Amino acid sequence: MRVLLVTGNQSKVAEVRDVLKPYGVNVEKADLRKFEVQGEIEEVSMLAARLAAMEALEPVVVDDSGLYVEALKGFPGPYSSYVYSTIGNEGLLSLLSHDDNRAAAFRCAVSYVDPINRVERTFLGEVAGYIRREPGKPGGFGFDPIFSPFGPNGVPLSEMSVEEKNAISHRGRAFRKLGEYLAARQ
Amino acid sequence: MRVLLVTGNQSKVAEVRDVLKPYGVNVEKADLRKFEVQGEIEEVSMLAARLAAMEALEPVVVDDSGLYVEALKGFPGPYSSYVYSTIGNEGLLSLLSHDDNRAAAFRCAVSYVDPINRVERTFLGEVAGYIRREPGKPGGFGFDPIFSPFGPNGVPLSEMSVEEKNAISHRGRAFRKLGEYLAARQ
User: Fold this and answer.
1) Please, are residues A148 and A132 in contact by the beta-carbon 8 Å criterion?
2) How far is A43 from B48, CA to CA, in rounded Å?
3) Which of A36, A79, A95 sits opposite B94 (nearest CB)?
4) Domain at A125, CATH number
5) For residue B89, is pLDDT > 80?
6) Chain B, nearest residue to A34 by Cα
7) Are the beta carbons of A86 and B75 separated by less than 8 Å?
8) What is chain B's alpha carbon radius of gyration, rounded to the nearest angstrom?
9) In terms of pTM, does the model score above 0.90?
10) Full residue range of the structural domain in which residue B71 is found
């Protein structure tokens, strides 16, 4: 089957295509507007998917992600990409400079809307870890260089290969749940 | 004439009522949802006003405000209330702790939609000033204690009376423009 992914980011399309291929799902980039409401990531992804599905009249998928820092009450959360584009990694590190609690998680919500069969589902993925004292090498998206998932070696997300990152990332996890769901329905 | 103000904040209703009374405009609190999109404050206020007007079927007004800090590329901007509720005044001060450029402005967008006469207008108000090194006394909304408008005495917004604040604030200025517009149409 085919689903349309609503995003302006071509490298995300390639990443999601790799994740969903084993489930027999063919991902195409949709040329539709991603409408974004203020709210939790699962509200953002679901409303955007509903509006895109009404336009496309076929199954669509929208994801939304955020970095949640425990010591900052979840900031920057749903507004991570805006916050990254203004204060950046440097700003986030300075907010935590006197804080020993470095706990953080990346969360992803993937919403699937099939307007023909009237199906709506949201799948959540999370990767827990910590905000590093020093950034790793550049790479990946946004805050990836200052985040290391919990694990034996403390590698930042930005230094992982696409395959390594897909295996453990919030986005990889959420999209695999979608893949399992769609494979079971086919 | 009467307009419905879409807000959950009763003290804002009182503030706006005072500002619009001299223009012959009677402000009532609307019991309607304020739908908030991600975007610039004038997009947030206009879309919220359109949706509320479709529900109310009479003239409505919605305002949205933000604090724009020059050294932080406009952060927190349209997400000021979320940012205030997470990192607060302390977080914003720490982001600027090594910065001599303290320039900032509060901006307000007021959108008026009259669904009967098919009128839509947005009015902007701004107050320029600076982020203080130390917070003033608590008071007002959100970041008011750490912002002083340019002027002779450097008083923070949080320490002004409602009348003083209305006279120079971003919100007062935007709503007076609306008042002038409505008075000219009556």
Assistant:
1) yes
2) 17
3) A95
4) 3.90.950.10
5) yes
6) B38
7) yes
8) 17
9) yes
10) 2-185
